[in-house]
Inverse folding.
């Protein structure tokens, strides 16, 4: 018999698939992960989810929250993540809800990160902020007045597709000069022929400058207080990357209301993605209950 309750949390990334059981307080009770396969990612994801459910037989799972890269249709009914090319209009919501038997809630991975960091992490004292994930892609989640900005189709916050460079750098989205085309993990691998963790210092600094440039634009438009950055690629670049980003942001942000904006690493470490996925479900349940 279940002795406690929790949320089944799922994080779908370009390099890894992760699942966990997360308590209503944000504690991770069980977790597991596998590498994202090039083929048949759903088969691997379904096996991972069922394994976590089996390992949590003593816990009452009240819902499932999912963080996945976009674009996607609102609510995650269909997803076309740029980092999983075999998924085009993949019916993620129905697939997971049928697999788990749980009410399921899905949102963009960077928006989930924003929920996690605003709840328990580096922006828990901020009502207006931007969360950025830099990994296989570059995503963003914008929070205004303690609420996620959703947008017309549910895709607000695609920060990685702010144009920061010239037309000679193509992006996976079909555009050119996007931030993601310069600072994502695959972009660095194409440019250097090596793992992005081993990018030379000049590229770490350049990428920090590009991040700061993009943040300066968002700060002027959205009047935010802080930018929290996660993702294995950005965190692996360390202090030189963040220093370059903040220096560029400050050099370009001359409006009085943008002068105090800062770019900081996430506060929840590698747990942030799964806590964010759980927060997607918890927030949705709370909002739905309040409207009834």
């Amino acid at each position: 018999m279940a002795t406690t309750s929790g949320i089944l949390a799922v994080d779908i990334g370009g390099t890894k698939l992760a699942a966990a059981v997360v308590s209503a307080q944000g504690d991770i009770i069980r977790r597991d992960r596998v590498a994202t396969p090039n083929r048949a990612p759903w088969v691997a994801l379904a096996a991972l989810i069922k394994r976590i459910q089996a390992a949590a037989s003593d816990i009452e799972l009240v819902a499932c929250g999912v963080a996945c890269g976009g674009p996607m249709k609102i609510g995650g009914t269909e997803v076309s993540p740029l980092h999983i090319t075999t998924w085009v209009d993949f019916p993620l919501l129905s697939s997971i809800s049928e697999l788990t038997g749980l009410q399921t809630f899905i949102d963009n991975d960077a928006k989930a990160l924003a929920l996690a960091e605003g709840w328990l992490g580096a922006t828990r004292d901020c009502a207006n902020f931007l969360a950025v994930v830099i990994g296989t892609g570059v995503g963003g989640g914008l929070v205004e007045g303690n609420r996620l900005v959703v947008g017309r189709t549910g895709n607000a916050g695609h920060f990685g597709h702010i144009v920061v460079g010239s037309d000679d750098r193509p992006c996976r989205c079909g555009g050119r000069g996007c931030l993601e085309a310069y600072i994502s993990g695959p972009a660095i691998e194409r440019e250097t022929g090596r793992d992005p963790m081993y990018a030379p210092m000049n590229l770490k600094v350049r990428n920090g400058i590009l991040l700061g440039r993009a943040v300066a634009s968002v700060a002027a438009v959205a009047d935010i207080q802080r930018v929290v950055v996660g993702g294995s690629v950005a965190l692996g670049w360390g202090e030189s990357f963040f220093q370059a980003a903040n220096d560029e942001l400050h050099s370009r942000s001359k409006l009085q209301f943008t002068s105090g904006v800062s770019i900081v690493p996430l506060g929840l470490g590698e747990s942030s993605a799964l806590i964010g996925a759980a927060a997607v479900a918890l927030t949705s349940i709370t909002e739905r209950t309040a409207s009834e």
In short: The helical segments are 41-55, 92-100, 109-120, 180-183, 185-192, 201-222, 232-252, 272-291.
